[in-house]
Amino acid sequence: MNQDFLDALRQIEKEKEIPLEVLLTTIESALETAYKKNFAATGDIRVRVTSSKSGFKVFCQKDVVDEVRNDHTEISLEEARKYDPNATVGSMIEIEVTPENFGRIAAQTAKQVVVQRIREAEREQVYEEFGDRVGEVVTGTVQRKEQRNVFINLGKVEALLPPAEQVPTEPYKFGDRLKVYVLEVRRTPRGPQVVVSRTHPTLIRRLFELEVPEITEGIVTIKSVAREAGARTKIAVSSSDDKVDPVGACVGHRGTRVQAVVNELYDEKIDIVRWSPDITKFVAESLSPAKALSVSADESTKTALVVVPDNQLSLAIGKSGQNVRLAARLTGWRIDIRSESQLARAVLTAEADSEPYEPDASGEADSELQ
Q1: Which residue, 340, 335, 339, is CA-closest to 321?
Q2: Fewer CB within 10 Å, N side or C side of the chain?
Q3: Which residues lie across from 181 on neighbouring strands?
Q4: Mean pLDDT, all residues of the chain
C-alpha cells in the first residue's frame, strides 16, 4: 500500500479512535462495490489492499472444475494451473483482474469511504458520550435561535433547547454561557440530537451539588425540589452529621453558595428549608419565610392545617398562591392555611373560609432518587 495513504489512515486511527483494521475492511468492501459498478463485473470479486504503488489490487475468486459452465465463477484445471501450479479440481483460486485505471477510481472511493466512516464514528462517539451523561449538567454557549428553538454549543455537538424546556424570563442571547440539564439523546438521520433543559427541577439539584461539597460528600442530602422555573424554587435539605447545618452549608459564607446558583438562574428566588421526618415540622419549614403558629396533620388524607399570624397570611400564601403551592409540592401534602382570626371565626361559625392548596400531578416534588 502507498505509505502516505497508510500513514493517513494511522493518523485517523489515532485522532478519531477508529481501528485501522476497521478502516481497511470498510475500504475493501467499498472498492468491491465500486469495481463491480464501474466494470460491470460479476462473480465473487475480492479487493485486497496491498503494498504497491497503486495501493489496491482486485482479485476474482473462481472454482476449479473439470468442465466450465460459467466463465465468471468457474475456471478449468488447465487454466487454473497457469496461476497456481498446485490447483486441483474442487479448489478455489484468486485471479488478479485489476484494470489499468482502477487506481484512480479506488483512490476516489477510498477517500469517500474514509470521510463517511469518520463521520459515522464521530456521531456514534457523541451519542455514547452524551447518552451516558443524561441527567447531568453541562456548560454550553448560546449559538443561535431558529423560530422558538435555542441551540446550545456543547463543543462536540449542538444541543437543542426546545420551547417547553426554556424559562420565559431568560434572554438566551448569542454568546451567553449557560449550564443546562441533559434531558435525552435522540438518534436522528443527521446524527445524535442532544435535548437539554433549563426548567427541569433536577437542574437545581445538580447546581447545588456543584457548589456545595457537603452534598457531593454525602453529608448533606437534597430530599426534594419544587420549582416554578424563572420565579421561585424551594429545596428541602437534611444532614447526616449533627455538626453540619444543612441549610447553612447550602447558603454558604455570606450566602456565596446559594448566590452562585441564583446568578446562574438569572436571579430566580430560592428558599432552602430544613427537612424533617416529622411532617408538622417539615410543613412549617416549607412555608418559609412565613412563620407558622401551629400545624396539625391528618395522615389519612395527607392534609395539613397551618395556622399563621394575621399579618403573615399573605406571606404564607404568596403572590397568586405561589408560596403555599410550592410548599405543597415540596412536602407532597395538601396544605390548608388559616390566620388566627379566620380560625377563630371558623370555630364560632363552623365554616371553612378557604379551600386547601394541593400539588397538581404535573408539579410533584422532584424525588430524592432523581
Answers
A1: 335
A2: C
A3: 137, 197
A4: 84
What pLDDT score does 79 carry? 86
Q: How far is CA 154 from CA 7, 123, 196, 261, 285, in A?
A: 31, 14, 10, 20, 39
Show the domains of the chain with their CATH numbers. Answer: 3-130 (3.30.1480.10), 134-199 (2.40.50.140), 204-275 (3.30.300.20), 278-370 (3.30.300.20)
Render pLDDT for 304-334 as a digit per residue (tens, 0 to 9).
Answer: 999 999 999 999 999 999 999 999 999 999 9
Better pLDDT: 342 or 281: 281
Instruction: Look up the pTM and report it.
Output: 0.67
CA distance 180 to 203: 7
Q: Are 357 and 336 in contact (CB under 8 A)?
A: yes
- Return the closest-CA partner of residue 226 out of 238, 237, 218: 237
